Amino acid sequence: MALESLIHEKVYTNKSDVWAYGITLWEIFSLGKTPYQGMKFGELIQRLQANYRLESPDYANEPM
């Protein structure tokens, strides 16, 4: 779920849709890994607010 949707209840925009699509692509190219695995909710919120990004999956090439 996009950061703004996590922080502000029921806030869904085209930006949160794009974010969700990006996470879905990440899951596909990581062959089904769980994003942010092992992070607690509070830690996830803090990292996302600090612009934390998932590493590029092994099966996604640079142009993607």
UniProtKB/TrEMBL annotation:
InterPro entries assigned? Kinase-like_dom_sf, Prot_kinase_dom, RTK, Ser-Thr/Tyr_kinase_cat_dom
> Might you name a Gene Ontology BP term for this protein?
cell surface receptor protein tyrosine kinase signaling pathway
Q: Which residues cross the membrane?
A: none
**Which Pfam families does this one have?**
PK_Tyr_Ser-Thr
Q: Name one GO molecular function term.
A: ATP binding
Q: Name one GO cellular component term.
A: receptor complex
SUPFAM superfamilies found in the cross-reference section: Protein kinase-like (PK-like)
Q: Which domain of life is it from?
A: Eukaryota
Domain Protein kinase as annotated: residue spans: 1-64
What's this protein's name? Protein kinase domain-containing protein
- What is the organism of origin for this protein? Darwinula stevensoni
Source species taxonomy: Eukaryota, Metazoa, Ecdysozoa, Arthropoda, Crustacea
